[in-house]
Amino acid sequence: MRPWIVWATGLLAYIVAVLDRTTLGVSGLAAADRFGAGPSLLSTFVVLQVVVYAGAQVPAGLLLDRYGSRALIASGAALMASGQLGLAFTESLPAAIAARAVVGLGDAVTFISVLRLVPHWFAPRQIPVVTQLTGICGQLGQVLSAIPFLALLSASGWSVAYASAAALGVLSIVLTLAIVRNTPDGSAATSETMSVRETLTSVKTVWLRPGTRLGFFTHMGTQFSITVFALMWGLPYLTEAQGLSAGVAGALLSLSVVSAIGCGVLIGILTGRYPHRRSRMVLAIITSNAVVWTVVLALPGPAPLWLLIVLIVVISVGGPGSMVGFDFARTFNPRATLGTAQGMVNMGGFIASLLLMQAMGMVMQAMGGISFESFRSAWMVQYVVWALAVVGILITRRKARRLLRDGNDRILLEGVNP
């Protein structure tokens, strides 16, 4: 029972992190009014947070390998709470942007730190499923932002809503320090202190493992579409371009979480049972995302509600699909550098997401602002990312399989085909 309690406490911290990450997505229109920001500037507002998140992944992984999950989860929660509190009471755009950057920094260390707990507390056969549960249950934070946070924002205003989010972060800090331990014996299970040169060499070694890069491109191709939708442009797209009410749009964003949970459990089971078919599952998820977006974007006007439901259900599978990337990292890296590898994998989807968010804002700004036509053109940028990810998966998968056939990788934890 103790492993589940420790994991659930870490999971709560991740749920709060997802809430903090997605609050601006559901309050984008309110933020535009509060700070006087247009589509391009508003996307930059969020993109900076994701830039910080993605850029901090490798340093966060190195710190995780050194200090363990407990310290980093608590530190991340403290950073996010302070950022949300600052955002609650400022009306200055530069101060608000700085606050979101702090939120991004705290968010950067949380997810991989919770994932790091899993191999220490659970049996190998449980790891794929618990890893999936971590990713998909963490998305309950999106439900918190889409329903109670949005309701609080509408009823009580900006400051009350964001201060309440900060209060949840404080609760997470207290529970993490009281309950979470890095390993069953409490040790941080870290490596010895390395010089700067040794650290850089270690980072290079981890990246050069084809399984790490396979995880990176897996995460990139599956995660970015639903992340951009949930984090920034989904609610404005559904309300302004598709003509839905805020309530219906919020319900559809919540449906995304339900879909991810159901599909995530299935993907976790299939990943553990058929590890040699993991990359095929990933390619199928990417293909389904591209196909459903093509159908929606090909319409001359707003899509019927049933098609929007299909769109959200299909792209939501990308969330749990991206978790397969972490499974590749675990397969091809020893525990001593697993945090670094997971940080690298986590960069893939968020780098793609931040580039797409910024590009979409620029496209809509160039077309005169938010409208049906500008959104349709902006979403087309996704096809470039999908093409890059698929090419990366195919190349790195071939290299990983060759490495396994040659039997040259002594650090493999599992002898399975990717």
UniProtKB/TrEMBL annotation:
The protein, known as: Major facilitator superfamily MFS_1
Membrane topology listed for this record: Multi-pass membrane protein
UniProt entry keywords in alphabetical sequence: Membrane, Transmembrane, Transmembrane helix
Subcellular location: Cell membrane
SUPFAM superfamilies: MFS general substrate transporter
Domain of life: Bacteria
UniProt key word Nucleotide-binding: no
Keyword Glycoprotein: no
PROSITE patterns according to UniProt: MFS (PS50850)
Species assigned in the record: Mycolicibacterium vanbaalenii (strain DSM 7251 / JCM 13017 / BCRC 16820 / KCTC 9966 / NRRL B-24157 / PYR-1) (Mycobacterium vanbaalenii)
GO CC annotations on file: plasma membrane
Spans through the membrane: 41-64, 71-89, 95-118, 130-153, 159-180, 214-235, 247-269, 281-299, 305-329, 350-372, 378-395
Coiled coil feature spans: none
Residues in Major facilitator superfamily (MFS) profile domain copies: 6-401
